[in-house]
Write a structure and sequence with these properties.
This protein has 11 helices and 11 strands. The radius of gyration is 20 Å and the shape is globular.
Length: about 260
């Protein structure tokens, strides 16, 4: 029995099955103990893989690649590939993808958001929809990081790109999309005003992501971050600069509240 799996419910079901098999003498106590030992984490020396995360928080561990050595990433992927989870690796370069492909030929690379996905199971899609809105085309890589993250976590996701406040009629022509969504992610650089505009139009949570896109006084995203933090529109939560992954993850948690599992 393997425990690196795709959702909180699946992991609980596997644990129940293990306990039932012990009760019915199908699995020995020693074998069950061996499986349970792997639940908290597996120590690779340089990394400790958190096998228990899906049970605690609903989603399995994700590999953040930036700053890690190629060799370490390959070994982490090899270990995680022994389970049944979808494996998500973020901030992955083409070089990292090529290395992962060597140990897992099913890996797929999303070049714009720099995400590697090893898809091992289909997850049921949500009824509720997450809408990712970008101010400009330069914000699309971070927007796509949010999109792919949310989709891998089992959400229905829609896109609305290049509708920033420099041409606000583009946004207003698509308000139906805003109204249909359960959660909205707004991604904007420059002054980051898009989040405030969207927040003033809808009755649902808005997750704002400032990007590092902009001229010098943008301070690599700081101006957009401060604008979003100081928004006069209510119901807006703000992620860190360029954190599309965090936005997609949080939007998934919100979107799945009330969903039937």
């Amino acid at each position: 029995m393997k425990f690196l799996i795709g959702s909180d419910k699946m992991e609980k079901d596997d644990l129940k099955k293990l306990l039932e098999d012990v009760k019915d003498d199908k699995v020995s106590i020693d074998d069950a103990l061996f499986e349970l030992k792997k639940l908290p984490f597996e120590d690779l020396g340089f990394a400790k893989i958190d096998n228990h995360r899906a049970l605690r928080v609903g989603y399995p561990e994700v590999i953040y690649c930036e700053g890690k050595s190629i060799d370490h990433i390959k070994k982490i992927v090899e270990k995680m590939d022994q389970g049944d989870s979808n494996i998500l690796a973020t901030r992955a370069s083409c070089e990292v993808y090529a290395a992962i492909k060597e140990v897992c030929e099913d890996a797929v690379y999303y070049e714009l958001p720099r995400i590697v996905l090893i898809k091992k199971r289909e997850l049921k899609k949500t009824n509720g929809k997450i809408l990712v809105v970008s101010a400009g085309t330069a914000d699309i890589p971070i927007s796509e990081e949010a999109v792919i993250t949310a989709e891998v976590l089992g959400n229905t996701v829609d896109r609305l790109y290049d509708v920033g406040v420099a041409g606000i009629h583009r946004l207003l022509a698509n308000v139906d999309k805003l109204y249909e969504a359960r959660v909205i992610i707004t991604v904007a650089g420059m002054e980051g005003a898009l989040a405030s505009v969207v927040g003033g139009l809808v009755d649902k949570p808005v997750i704002a992501v400032p990007t590092s896109i902009g001229y010098g006084a943008n301070f690599k995203g700081l101006s957009a971050l401060l604008t979003m933090l100081n928004s006069c529109a209510s119901g807006i939560g703000v992620m860190n600069i360029d954190n599309g992954f965090g936005a997609g993850y949080l939007a998934s948690m919100i979107n799945k509240i009330g969903e039937d599992h």
